[in-house]
Specification:
Helix content: 55-70%
Number of helices: 19
Number of domains: 1
Distance between the termini: 52 Å
Strand content: under 5%
Oligomer: single chain
Largest sheet: 3 strands, antiparallel
Order of helices and strands: HHHEEEHHHHHHHHHHHEEHHHHH
Length: 466
């Protein structure tokens, strides 16, 4: 019989001390509340913070608005490049030309589909960044909905949701909402729903004595949601190992088969969309843009920005779009890249003219921007026999491995935006870590530090016009 992924116990209290005092009173009070209301509260809080973080939302990259408008007019191509008129797109990068005055947006179409109602109402004037902030805020509520299934301690669930919503680059992505970040926000919605569906399917399977059917309908739903995530961000499909280890069906084979059936539906639809719009199953736009839009480093700028790796820049025509030789520079950014430091500026952190610290536009280490991720490490090391830990770790590893093989590190960003593709699975591990160690001063401090650092990153992202 396979091991259980049973709910983590309530947070421990220090040995010899009763669970009493203000924290215990708060825990008991929260325990009497319907968690669905807390989910709504987190969604409202997320929307408010994300919308108010960037009230101007001067977003000039709204590819998906143009794509949604094209869909409403019964076509896939957009008029491009337009440099005159009320609505302009001549400045757009990442458009695949298919003829005079026409272009295809190579990104998967789910974000454009999400925008269809707004574009139907407001046309090309639709504020996609505002929609991203609202959807991102809803994700904070969905994150709480997911983590309350992992612990009986409401304080742990609240702390974990606060970490995800305001202590990771999910905040930066949602408040900015430009084309690439909007795709992350929509994919995260699907991933949070997919994981929650798998956890629910797992619980229902455990409650049954036996499983007769080889297919679990709830696990099919989780796979379907995973496949939908891939129609916003392709790399999220690589998180599939999680759904082989966690979910309904009662065995590795049943979980995999059920989730695979569900995921196949949107993935096949995406391939059909690519074939209908570009004539190929895999969109040729990415390779075309890699070879034509991203030239080598004739000015030496990238060599200056990557001093330890002067010989590793972009190599279109020599290296593939996804190439293991890109791993060193991207892994360095993911794990160890530092902010810009100007000691001559003193202790000023928010001084626009001369700050002591300022985010590097190439990115920053995942553990510097969100030190709360450190809580996942002991869970992986000590709980590696648990299916939920194995599945989460494999999902994170597969997604991030392909991302660090990509020729681009994510371009101008705070932190490492590709981490959004794996963040919901990382949140599972962080929650298990919080449940293991409890709501202690240092677990709270890690989350608080993450929130402060991400608020600092949001501030600089807006000030610098990223």
């Amino acid at each position: 019989m396979e091991g259980s992924i049973a709910t983590a116990p309530a947070s421990p209290t220090p040995a010899g001390r009763p669970d009493s005092g203000p924290v215990a009173s708060l825990r008991n009070l929260l325990g009497t509340m319907d968690p669905r209301w807390l989910m709504v509260g987190f969604a409202v809080l997320g929307i408010a913070v994300y919308v108010l973080s960037n009230p101007t939302r001067q977003n000039v990259y709204d590819h998906f608005v143009w794509q949604a408008d094209a869909f409403l007019q019964g076509r896939a191509w957009i008029p491009w490049p337009l440099s005159q008129g009320e609505f302009l797109n001549g400045h757009f990068q990442d458009v695949f030309p298919i003829g005079e005055g026409r272009g295809l947006i190579p990104f998967p179409p789910l974000p454009a589909i999400v925008l269809l109602p707004a574009v139907a109402a407001f046309g090309l004037a639709t504020n996609a960044a505002l929609v991203a902030a609202v959807v991102g805020g809803l994700n904070v509520g969905l994150a709480y909905r997911m983590v309350w299934r992992l612990t009986t301690d409401p304080l742990v669930a609240i702390l974990a949701a606060l970490f995800y919503g305001f202590g990771t680059v999910a905040w930066y992505a949602a408040m900015l909402g430009s084309t690439w970040f909007f795709a992350h926000v929509v994919a995260s919605t699907c991933l949070l729903l997919a994981i929650t569906a798998a956890l629910d399917a797992e619980r229902r399977t455990a409650e049954r004595v036996s499983t007769v059917s080889p297919i679990d309908r709830r696990q099919v739903l989780s796979g379907l949601l995973l496949g939908l995530a891939a129609t916003a961000r392709l790399t999220t499909l690589l998180a599939a190992p999680f759904f082989a280890f966690v979910g309904g069906g009662g065995s590795f084979l049943r979980r995999s088969l059920s989730a695979g059936i569900g995921a196949a539906i949107p993935v096949l639809l995406l391939l059909a969309y690519n074939l209908a719009t570009s004539g190929q199953l895999f969109h040729p736009g990415y390779e075309h843009l890699y070879q034509t839009e991203y030239a080598p480093d004739p000015t030496g700028l990238l060599a200056q920005l990557f001093p330890p790796l002067r010989d590793i820049t972009y190599h279109p025509g020599e290296w593939a779009l996804q190439d293991p030789r890109y791993i060193p520079q991207n892994l360095l950014i993911l794990l160890a890249w530092l902010p810009e430091v100007r000691p001559e500026c003193g202790l000023a952190l928010l001084d626009q003219a001369c700050p002591l610290l300022r985010p590097d536009r190439l990115g920053m280490s995942l553990f510097l921007t969100s030190p709360g991720w450190l809580l996942a490490i002991p869970v992986v090391l000590q709980g590696w026999r648990r299916r939920i830990v194995i599945g989460s770790t494999l999902a994170i590893g597969a997604v991030l491995l392909v991302n660090v093989m990509h020729f681009s590190q994510g371009w101008v960003q705070f932190g490492y935006r590709f981490s959004n593709d794996a963040a919901p699975f990382g949140l599972l591990l962080v929650t298990l870590g919080m449940a293991r160690y409890g709501v202690r001063w240092w677990t709270v401090a890690l989350v608080a530090a993450s929130i402060v650092i991400n608020a600092w990153g949001v501030y600089w992202g807006i000030v610098l016009g990223w």
